[in-house]
Amino acid sequence: QVQLVESGGGSVQPGGSLRLSCAASGFTFSSSTMRWYRQAPGKEREFVAFISNAGGTTNYADSVKERFTISRDNVKNTVYLEMNSLKAEDTAMYYCNALVLKLNYWGQGTQVTVSS
What per-residue confidence (pLDDT) applies to 90? Predict the structure, then answer.
């Protein structure tokens, strides 16, 4: 079955950096586009970043452009989210998403807290 397992979250000060990972299994990873989403307390889940199956196309929410970078390793079946210049408003649970045969799959999430 499809499994997505996020890791790498934690607590950092404003201006800090974190690298999230999402290990995928149960589907042909190299054929699937991948996304990161986040959900802050009391808010709806929002799109953060997208990467095409081969990694040649990416796009980002305006709020994270120039600060976050999505990438993937199709040998390790892993997608990454490098987050720099973190702000308090980046505090959220971050989720990995895969679209597999027109069905959406989600990981369990990893918490990112940005606070001084």
Answer: 98
